[in-house]
Amino acid sequence: MDAAAICTQLSHLQNSGATFDELLSHAVRLLHESNERFDWTGIYELDPGQMLHLGPFIGAPTDHVFIAVGHGVCGSAVAEGCNKNIPDVSKEPNYLACSSATRSELVVLIRDGDRIYAQIDIDSHQVDAFDSSIESGVEMIARWLAGAYHSDEVQKQAA
Q1: pTM (2 decimals)?
Q2: CB-facing half-sphere around the CA of 56: CA atoms within 13 A
Q3: What is the DSSP letter of 98?
Q4: Angle, to 10 degrees, between the axis of helix 20-33 and the axis of helix 132-158?
Q5: Taking a C-beta distance cutoff of 8 angstroms, is the pair 137, 123 a contact?
Q6: Is the Cα dihedral 88, 84, 80, 67 positive or negative?
Q7: CB neighbours of 51 closer than 8 A, spacing ≥ 6?
Q8: 3-state helix, strand, coil in the chain (%, to 5)
Q9: 21-73 tens-digit pLDDT
Q10: Alpha carbon 129 to chain centroid distance?
Q11: Distance separating alpha carbons of residues 109 and 90, to the nearest angstrom
Q12: How far is 152 from 128, CA to CA, in rounded Å?
């Protein structure tokens, strides 16, 4: 995965007038295609009511369109304010199964300081699929997306 190249591509799209939703969809696609171990890649957005709702994703459909903060790996990441790298989901007591084929999961918060906008959620059919370099790369993309969320929020407030 070349996270810097993904961020550069997203910046080019942003500068060429892509909408915020287009940026999110492209980010998911570029990230998903960056690693053959990524079997499901998506963004869950945090609404003001402290509920995560599924945004753009690539992979098998999931029943988990809404996830309450504190539930599952995604919800606990928000509740605890930290990223989650779960090498073996079968050993995670709070795991919400989206697919019986999933073996590991990575959740990286899209945040600006204490403000959490969303999260990147990646599932793999391989155990221990996410090493520190993958996690760092996804964190870089999440930082880029945090800036896009902030810009979108400012534009909405100005309108």
Answers
A1: 0.94
A2: 13
A3: S
A4: 170
A5: no
A6: negative
A7: 66, 67, 68, 69
A8: 40, 25, 35
A9: 999 999 999 999 999 999 999 999 999 878 999 999 999 999 899 999 999 99
A10: 16
A11: 22
A12: 35
